[in-house]
């Protein structure tokens, strides 16, 4: 038996780290116990003839001894057996999609190294997964065979989802996709697309190009297998324009190179997709939009931005770049929806994990826009909206960024003071606002101006509390290093003092629960929502509101963490219920063991951003998550969290 998905993931993680990795960190990444990690390492080493591939150390953890051999083992491993039911369901789905005549249950059970009964249960789980995910596909049992039935377009879209989902960081590496196709030459199709689109001056962007490349590659593969799309549900005449000419040329060139014949319906559908991916070269002004038919999008966008201001306290209404960008994007979403030109956003999970507040506002925008217009905005499109809001946040913070107020005391004279101030402004103009130079006779004036710091070239004594930083009048490289260390220490002190003051408003002992056992995310949500309701923080139907948010986009962030909450700030009081599970559960596409359930009072909505800022560095660190999960008491959890937020580990 070869490597299973979990063992492959373990090796790939060690390849990525290149050095020693603690067992508990690997356990968090894989969502298993340290004992299972030891078993997997032992199994992997048993596959290597000459010695061990992974070196073990009680002190240091695990280390890949031979990188080349590890990469070879990954390449050579053709087995797709799996230890997890959800992973086996993924394997079964892939086989069904890429199999022409269905798959035999007995053969499948043997290949997955499970019993026939287990295999049948996995197939039932797959049926539920397809239904819950909204795919218009169903499984049919014929004797010992399983067949996937449904529209050809649905199957192709699902194939693209699976392929892109596995590509992850290598999404723009064309060679990554070759292994999925036996009859379609992906690299050749890519060359044709780039050439034709460039010659025609037609811009669909990198993600549009990637989606089109994969769709056409899947189409070539399916046509060669004898599968074609069903009758088109749109008028051919409506798109017999530039896009049809481009699609015809692309298909003709591929036909010449790959011995395939595109039926006319397939060409029409590809032209349909191309028009849905088109990017506008120039954006109109806000005033221009108001005077055009596009004013519909403008009015709705302005209304929803006002709702965001009311709900989150961020005023984007005057940001013309954002308003126009959102209008044009929503217009494209509507066009794509009309044409069925679904575009897969490969960065959604990373955006959710790294920029949760931006993603949250994007989810809210999508929900409100859908409520007003009836236009469905899916998770992929929400990810694209987050790009717009991310840039808007940067512009907003640059405008509102507060500098530290600084006064300079330099008795060496006017010229020396000017030189010192000039150097400080050169290095720290974005951090410090210098209100002037003061002499010994003017120290009383400092009290009136209340600077954050007093930078002095000589020792001074004040009769009121103030932060004095001593430097030399020359402010050379050594002074600069010392000054930056002092600033860093002061900032860290402020952060450490304020961290639990902020988090303490959210995380409460009465809402901390460890050692929990649940079967799925809904059970977890029901439990934590009830505890919040029981303490008077939320309405009785809070679990339903949280599930409504989950349907828009799962709140799991990877690394075993989820942050479920309602779409709107509708809590009676601000609190966070914390749940630590004995074993992880599947939550969307990720396993989850540590849950922070938010309940945010409208008047305290801006604290949500602060809390996200504190959590982001922790979400990306498996070792920190492992320590939090191992917390058995509220006091231990609190101590670890404060330490991590202050940047000390």
Which structural traits does this protein have?
26 helices, Arc Repressor Mutant, subunit A, PTS-regulatory domain, PRD, globular, four-stranded parallel beta sheet, 6 domains, 12% strand, 649 residues, alpha/beta, four-stranded mixed beta sheet, single chain
State the strand order across the main sheet: 7-6-8-9
Overall number of strands:
13
Mean pLDDT: 82
Count of structural domains: 6
Radius of gyration: 29 Å
Outline type: globular
CATH class of the largest domain: Alpha Beta
Q: And the CATH topology of the largest domain? A: Mannitol-specific EII, Chain A
Low-confidence stretches: 78-82
Strand content bin: 5-15%
The CATH homologous superfamily of the largest domain is called Mannitol-specific EII, Chain A
Cα separation of the termini: 41 Å
Derived from helix and strand composition plus strand pairing, the structural class reads alpha/beta
Helix count equals: 26
**Major pleated sheet:** 4 strands, parallel
Structure, explained:
Residues 505-644 form the PTS EIIA type-2 domain. Pfam families: HTH_11 (PF08279), Mga (PF05043), PRD (PF00874), PTS_EIIA_2 (PF00359). InterPro entries: BglG_antiterminators (IPR050661), HTH_11 (IPR013196), Mga_HTH (IPR007737), PRD (IPR011608), PRD_sf (IPR036634), PTrfase/Anion_transptr (IPR016152), PTS_EIIA_type-2_dom (IPR002178), PTS_EIIB-like_sf (IPR036095). The chain has 26 helices and 13 strands. With 649 residues, it is an alpha/beta fold. The chain folds into 6 domains: 17-71, Winged helix-like DNA-binding domain superfamily/Winged helix DNA-binding domain (Arc Repressor Mutant, subunit A, Orthogonal Bundle); 85-148, Winged helix-like DNA-binding domain superfamily/Winged helix DNA-binding domain (Arc Repressor Mutant, subunit A, Orthogonal Bundle), CATH 1.10.10.10; 156-277, PTS-regulatory domain, PRD (Orthogonal Bundle), CATH 1.10.1790; 286-375, PTS-regulatory domain, PRD, CATH 1.10.1790; 404-475, Rossmann fold, CATH 3.40.50; 501-645, 3-Layer(aba) Sandwich (Mannitol-specific EII, Chain A). Helix 16 (348-354) packs across helix 17 (356-373) and helix 22 (521-534) packs antiparallel against helix 23. 34% of the residues are buried. The model is unreliable at 78-82 (pLDDT under 50).
């Amino acid at each position: 038996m070869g490597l299973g998905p979990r063992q492959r993931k373990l090796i790939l993680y060690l390849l990525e780290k290149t050095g020693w990795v603690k067992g508990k960190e690997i356990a968090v990444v894989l969502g298993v116990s340290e004992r299972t990690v030891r078993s997997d390492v032992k199994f992997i080493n048993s596959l290597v003839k000459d010695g061990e591939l992974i070196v073990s150390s009680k002190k240091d953890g695990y280390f890949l001894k031979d990188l080349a051999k590890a990469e070879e083992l990954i390449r050579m491993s053709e087995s797709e057996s799996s230890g997890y039911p959800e992973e086996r369901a993924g394997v079964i789905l892939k086989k069904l999609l890429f199999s022409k005549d269905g798959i035999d249950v007995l053969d499948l059970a043997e290949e997955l190294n499970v019993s026939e009964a287990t295999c049948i249960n996995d197939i039932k789980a797959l049926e539920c997964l397809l239904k819950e995910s909204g795919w218009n596909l169903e499984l049919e049992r014929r004797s010992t065979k399983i067949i996937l039935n449904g529209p050809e377009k649905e199957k192709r879209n699902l194939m693209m989802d699976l392929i892109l989902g596995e590509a992850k960081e290598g999404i723009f590496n064309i060679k990554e996709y070759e292994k999925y196709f036996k009859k379609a030459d992906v690299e050749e199709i890519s060359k044709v697309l780039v050439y034709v689109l460039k010659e025609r001056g037609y811009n669909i962007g990198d993600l549009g190009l990637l989606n089109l490349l994969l769709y056409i590659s899947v189409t070539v593969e399916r046509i060669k297998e004898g599968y074609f799309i069903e009758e088109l549900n749109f008028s051919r005449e409506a798109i017999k324009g530039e896009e049809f000419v481009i699609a015809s040329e692309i298909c003709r060139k591929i036909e010449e190179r790959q011995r395939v014949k595109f039926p006319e319906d397939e060409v029409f559908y590809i032209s349909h997709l191309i028009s849905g991916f088109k990017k506008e070269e120039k954006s109109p002004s806000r005033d221009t939009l108001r005077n055009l038919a596009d004013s519909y999008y403008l009015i709705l966008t302005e209304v929803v931005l006002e709702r965001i201001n009311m709900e989150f306290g961020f005023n984007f209404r005057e940001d013309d770049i954002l308003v126009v960008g959102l209008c044009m994007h929503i217009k494209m979403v509507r066009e794509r929806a009309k044409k069925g030109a679904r575009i897969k956003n490969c960065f959604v999970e990373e955006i959710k994990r790294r920029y949760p507040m931006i993603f949250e506002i994007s989810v809210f925008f999508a929900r409100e826009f859908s409520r007003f217009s009836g236009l469905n905005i899916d998770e992929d499109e929400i990810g694209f909206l987050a790009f717009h809001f991310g840039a808007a946040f940067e512009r907003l913070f640059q405008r509102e960024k507060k500098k530290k107020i600084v006064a300079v005391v330099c008795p060496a004279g006017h010229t020396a003071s000017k030189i010192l101030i000039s150097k400080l402004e050169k290095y720290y103009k974005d951090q410090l606002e210098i209100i002037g130079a003061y002499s010994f006779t003017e120290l009383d004036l400092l009290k009136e101006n209340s600077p954050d710091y007093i930078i002095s070239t000589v020792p001074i004594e004040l009769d009121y509390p103030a932060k004095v930083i001593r430097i030399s009048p020359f402010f050379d490289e050594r002074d600069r290093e010392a000054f930056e260390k002092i600033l860093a220490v002061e900032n860290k002190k402020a952060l450490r003092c304020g961290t639990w003051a902020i988090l303490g408003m959210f995380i409460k002992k009465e809402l901390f629960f460890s050692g929990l056992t649940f079967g799925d995310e809904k059970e977890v949500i029901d439990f934590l929502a009830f505890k919040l309701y029981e303490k008077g923080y939320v309405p009785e139907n809070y679990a339903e509101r949280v599930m409504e948010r989950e349907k828009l986009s799962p709140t799991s962030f990877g690394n075993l963490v989820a942050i479920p909450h309602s779409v709107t700030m509708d809590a009676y009081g601000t609190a966070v219920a914390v749940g630590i599970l004995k074993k992880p559960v599947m939550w969307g596409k990720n396993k989850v063991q540590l849950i922070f359930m938010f309940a945010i009072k409208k008047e305290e909505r801006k604290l949500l951003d602060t809390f996200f800022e504190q959590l982001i560095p922790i979400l990306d660190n498996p070792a920190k998550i492992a320590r939090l999960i191992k917390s058995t008491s509220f006091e231990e959890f609190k101590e670890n969290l404060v330490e991590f937020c202050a940047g000390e580990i």
